[in-house]
Amino acid sequence: MRDKSLKSVRPFSDEQARILINLRRRYEVWIEAERALAAMPYDLRRKEVGGRVYLYEIHDRNGNGKSLGAWSEEQGQKLEAYRAAKAEAKERRAGSRAALEESGRLARAVRVPMIANAAGPILREADRRELLGSTLLVVCTNTMAAYALEAAGFIQDIPDETADLDLAWMETEARDQQQVLWEMLKAVDPTFTVNTERTFQARNSKAYEVEILVAPSRIGTMARTDRPRPVALPEQEWLLNGRTVDQVVICRDGSPARLVAPDPRWFALQKLWMSKKPTRDPLKRDKDFKQGVLLLDAIELAMPAYPLDDAFEATLPGELAPYYVHWSERRPVRAQQRW
User: Fold this and answer.
1) Please, which of 38, 75, 134, 293 could form a disulfide with 55 given CB 3.0 to 4.6 Å?
2) How many CB atoms lie within 10 A of CB 313?
3) In what helix (H) or strand (E) does residue 257 lie, and over which residues does it extend?
4) How, if at all, do strands 114-115 and 245-251 pair?
């Protein structure tokens, strides 16, 4: 058995922990205001057409819209209520944004775990549309920042994130005729296009890549017209098990992003399995193995909500059980709790 202690996870300082707690609280206030604004019409206007006055709902900045009916006292009240609600939501967004930006600057200054800048706008837009944790999971190395926050410390020697973002489609309800992914990506950056050689991947003008993965049990809920179009992979089923990790992290520029990642136990074991997969890119195998082992160590030492015990082992499929047994024979020794 290895002689390991909490050195595998370096706990956050009191100041780092305090800043991260405030970051989460301020992000939640800000995203709530963002969602409130997103749920409102782009604009409502009193508009004269052919000598008659109507209340119009405007869809875009070009003034396109539809009539909500002839103008009346009731329509006037509706317009006033809309303007008041929108002004209040904008005020809440502006106030919360200032506080959130301050938390981001502080978090960056004390060097908490971070992710690449390019992932931030995509994750924020996905969260604004309420897709994270219900429709989409983050399943790439960016998850390590969320797992570090779950462990309340730095996971030592964990590999850095790569310059891409992998998202897993996990929706359980059919999204017929809804281009959920494509509309979200285009809202972030209109230069996104589908890679014709790898149709599960989208790239923007800066060559930033977003890959979409899916378990066979969930691919039927995705609209046939949505893009990018993933290939169903059986190993993605494992990442639907357990309980997700939900954390607010910062990008390297200090901007916030919410990460909803798979249960770290299943993610770590899938990484170990991937490190031995014959078709896996040889350049990624060593990183997969290292991530898997270090993450399991961190779970054992600092994530009590995710027990690595007999009950968990009993749930493992035959493909993953040997990796767990091999790790368990060398699992780190927990430091004795101090009161």
Assistant:
1) 75
2) 13
3) strand 256-261
4) parallel
